[in-house]
User: What shape does this take?
Amino acid sequence: MALQSAGDLLAVWETAATQAPVERALTLLAAAWPGASRAELARLPLGERDARLLDLRAALFGAEVAALAACARCGERVEFALDVPGLRVAGAPPAEGEVSAGGWTLRYRPATSEDLLAALPTPDPVRALAGRCLVDARRDGLPMDEALLPEEALDALSAALAASDPQAEVMLDYTCPACGEEGRTVFDPGAFLWDELRAQARRLLMEVAELARAYGWREADILALSAARRRAYLELAS
Assistant: This one.
């Protein structure tokens, strides 16, 4: 896995900083797995994408995860102590699945980042995403145009897509410490990893700025130092 040096981390932070979440996740994966093309990564099922993001998070920052959420009732901060293995879902989604509703029989495949990128800008992203994942649509055994899908069938298809790839939507249960409300929240590994990587990039930039002021060194020379040596020089400079 690449993306191990301080310079690599700053480079991927600079590229991903202006990107939307789906593109950003692909940028992180492409930096960590340079042997895979961006197009290949974009065609991974969302659960496989998120599993790789969890692996990247563990490689960069360790397996222990401290996450935060806000209580849906009172807004109180809820803390989660997690680990990466505990966030992994066993098994991969099937290549295809089938669901029936309201006389419709729908065959589908798992959603991918490529599908999200195409669906999100549309007026109805849910229908667009479902349509991209639909392999075959029949009503009473007859082939049908997916544009004719009624809401009942669309809802069933959306639920089946989520159930078939559970790694793509990891839910965390909580009890609010303030009001006792029980609830659930989604853990987004891409957003979580990005927040941590962005914070680390800012710390690195502050170290570079301080050491450059103190010693006149170039950024590349500072980033080539180990974290322990950067800290030691920062202590001496202070």
